[in-house]
Amino acid sequence: MKRSELFFTFLLIPIDIVMILLAFILAYKSRLYFEYVPATYFEPFREYLKFILFLIPGWILIFVLTGLYSIRERRTPLNEFGKIVVAVSAAIALMMAWIFLSRTSFFSRLIIVFSWALAIMTVTFGRFLIRAIRNWLYRYGLGVHRVIVLGHNSSTRPVINEIKGNKRLGYKIIRLIDREAIEKLEAIVKRNPCDEIIIADSTLPENLASRVLEFCRLHNLSFKMTPNLFLVRSSHVSIEELAGVPILEFKRTPLDGWGKIIKRTVDLVGSLILIILFSPIMIITAILVKLSSRGPIFFKQERVGLDNHSFKLMKFRSMKFEYCTGDKYGGKKAEQVFKKLAKRNEADGPIFKIKNDPRVTTFGKFIRKTSLDELPQFFNVLKGEMSLIGPRPPLPEEVAQYTKWQRRRLGVKPGITGLWQVSGRSELSFDEWVRLDAYYIENWSLWLDFQIFLKTILIVLRGRGAY
Q1: For 107-156, how does the pLDDT look when each residue is reduced to its tens digit (9 = 90+)?
Q2: DSSP structural state of residue 372
Q3: Under a CB-based contact definition with an 8 Å cutoff, are residues 288 and 317 in contact?
Q4: Cβ contacts of 163 within 8 Å, gap of 6 or more
Q5: Element (H, E) at 62
Q6: Looking at the DSSP assignment, which residues form a beta bridge with residue 245?
Q7: SS3 assignment, position 38
Q8: How many angstroms separate the CA atoms of 264 and 389, rounded?
Q9: Helices 446-462 & 258-292 angle (0-180, nearest 10)
Q10: Domain residue spans of the chain
Q11: Nearest-CA neighbor of 181 among 201, 195, 158?
């Protein structure tokens, strides 16, 4: 554990105390301006402040219990904000219970509402300030984790590129090694002092990974590794005991049972709202598609959904009509052009992707870059064929090439966006798509869906990875 991490974690406590106090002071002052809302009694500010100071230790204890001071956990800003909302809400609820049970002559219920909203804002601001300072220091190499990355091939490139390109992670790669270098790990670390070792090669045999783990334990280094497909599949495991023998139970996806009902309800309500909100944009896009090139407005393509059932996925047409493949479109000529382009395929596995596709219209490039071509899929969600969040909907010819493990993706409804969308879009390999989909299926929650939804908005606005 680096000293800088301990320092900044400890610094969060006084910052949070200041931000909580600031929230209550602002709430008190704000209530004074709402004279048209009658209040039977206002506590004098001095007495009010004493009462709040008395409650502060309880707030900090709740923050501790909700994990807001966890040193080991690396939280994204969105994840941290969610924990702040939960912690502040719990603290306010306990405060109200204390007021009721102790029969404290409190001042105004409106102050409690103001305090809740303001505390979320001020505590979030304090955390943002600390994060900004840390990120600024990371840019100059201060407080960063010096790491040795094991694995230097095509499958490890995304991890290495992310560490090098994202300074906010607080990592600095000091050495890249391969599995042959494990024998010389002692000498390598002596010449290149580090804080942790990351195994980025998911194909590394278990016996070699165990040797690296033991080396890290012996030398007090942090150890991280990317999981192989089996570990991803077994990430939702519980341990039971039968006749004194521990039994591992591989649980089914949380999307079964009530999870399926909740997700369908969210999809139904969400798609209706989004169709209404985006209807002006969809109408304008439809007109421009029609005016920009010959052919229909919509392009319907057969895709494979839940339990291998096929459906017609809807998109705004982005290709020239004569090059659209399918029975209702370009016919043999389109198929011949596609076969020629297939030789230029830039994606691995049973998927097809190329940049600067000559079949795409000028306006088609724009709607693909901005993801406007995918807006009609809200109607697929409304019909129950897709979900707002889920695995990428595959083509039948792609599914025909799936292994048994890869068919696991068909156990849930495909989504308009998903982990594959927010983790690299077109830059990801097919194996990485499968791994992300497996993680999503095993670890689904409404909170995970919400995070993916917000990240998708940011990625679409940047136009990153779409073509």
Answers
A1: 566 788 889 999 999 999 999 999 899 888 888 888 888 888 888 766 67
A2: G
A3: no
A4: 147, 149, 169, 171, 173
A5: helix 45-65
A6: 242
A7: coil
A8: 11
A9: 20
A10: 3-139, 145-226, 258-462
A11: 201
The whole-number pLDDT of residue 242 equals 45
Q: How far apart are CA 95 and CA 156, in angstroms?
A: 49
Q: Under DSSP, is residue 196 helix (H, G, I), strand (E, B) or coil?
A: strand
Cα separation, 337 vs 150, in Å, equals 42
> Which pair of structure tokens corresponds to residue 354?
């190329």
Topology of the domain covering 145-226: Rossmann fold (3.40.50)
Specify the DSSP element, H or E, that contains 64: helix 45-65
Candidates 255, 163, 223, 168; CA nearest to 439 is: 255
How confident is the model over 323-354, as pLDDT tens digits?
A: 666 556 555 665 566 556 555 555 555 565 66
Cα(465)–Cα(467) distance, rounded to whole angstroms? 7
Structure tokens at 125: 């601001």
User: From CA 243, how far away is CA 415, in angstroms rounded?
Assistant: 43
Structure tokens belonging to residue 194 = 């580090």
Tens digits of residue pLDDT in 88-100: 999 988 888 777 7
- Contact yes or no for 134/46 (Cβ under 8 A): no
CA dist 287 → 214, 291, 317, 363, 461 (Å)? 63, 6, 11, 11, 22
Position 390, amino acid: G
> Under 8 Å CB-to-CB from 250, ≥6 apart: which residues?
233, 234, 236, 237
- For Cα atoms 189, 194, 195, give the angle at the middle one, nearest 5 degrees: 135
d(CA 453, CA 12): 29
